[in-house]
Amino acid sequence: MRITKLPTLLFLFGTLSSAASVVAAEPTDISKLRPLRERVLTQAEQQALTPDKVLEMLHAGNQRFLDGTLTLRDHSAQVRKAAVGQFPKAIILSCVDSRVPVEDVFDRGIGDIFVTRNAGNFVNVDVLGGMEFACKVAGAKLILVMGHEDCGAVKGAIDNVKLGNLTAMLKNIRPSVRQVEKVEGEGTSSDEQFVQKVIARNVLDAIANIRKQSPVLVDLEKQGTLKIVGAVYNMDSGAVEFLED
Length: 245
Ligand SMILES: [Zn+2]
Known about the structure:
5 strands; Beta-carbonic Anhydrase, Chain A; 5-stranded mixed sheet; alpha/beta; binds zinc ion
């Protein structure tokens, strides 16, 4: 079942005590709330999906996130036990940023999506291996590379930050910075528009690198059983804005 208002949901779980007097005016009968006890996606259900259908489901999930109508899920032992295999719909490459809760952003539960994360959502051999497992072995239909506004890793790459292992890690994002600099001239992390352009470029470059470095995924794409798309998460609104190259 769906909860119509997120503040009500928060109140029920005792995390919005300051709103107690407001919500108390319209008492909710908690005994009538029945969290969704989902079945985990089966292989047959996964195989019946198309990449476009999966994309549509992600759009719809993000709309619920925006509307405050997230599905209230019951991740009880019974549900976890049912997840004997996994046949998720998609794999999402996201930044590690704590303000981007990937499953919530798309209103997904156990067994629904693979999520792979690193600071700056770039592609390397480890990420590609996970994607090839997700799509070729486990049958996922969509790869989504999702950057986000105000990305600290992208800002660090723009400013050429040197710190421990960050120095080497940020090198993965530097080619995108240089691409934007070719058009815009040099920029800094305090230039919001410049940062935004690098964030988008970095997503598109990650997609290009997937295609360049993974013949396995390119084959699936050619067969029409896989789609690779990019997006940027809007920190203010929670909206996922899809990119066109
Ligand atoms: Zn980030």
